[in-house]
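Morning!

This is the sequence you dropped in the shared folder:
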Amino acid sequence: MASNYGLLVRFRLREGAADGFDQLVAETVSEIAEHEPGTLIYTSHAVEGRPDERVFYELYRDEAAFAAHEEQPHTRRFLAQRAEYVESYDVDVITPKVSNKQ
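The structure's back. Tokens below.
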């Protein structure tokens, strides 16, 4: 059985870019929900007290689902346009160790 594949991404946005970034993310998330059954969770979080930061939690059925996600037109659009809003980012690949799923 294949293991889930996850990412934790912290974006530091350019000053004043949060609204545009959030709109780009909303459009991307809508496309992910419609076209990517292997993407289990894809959420963007605001960080309390840091208006120019966002944290993404992404969980894919497996590494193949993540690879398929990277090839989607909406993902490529997001990657191409994010530089307009993002100053820097960090990506951690995360592996589930304990789950409440039975």
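Headline: The first strand starts at residue 5 and ends at 13.

More detail when I'm at my desk.
O.
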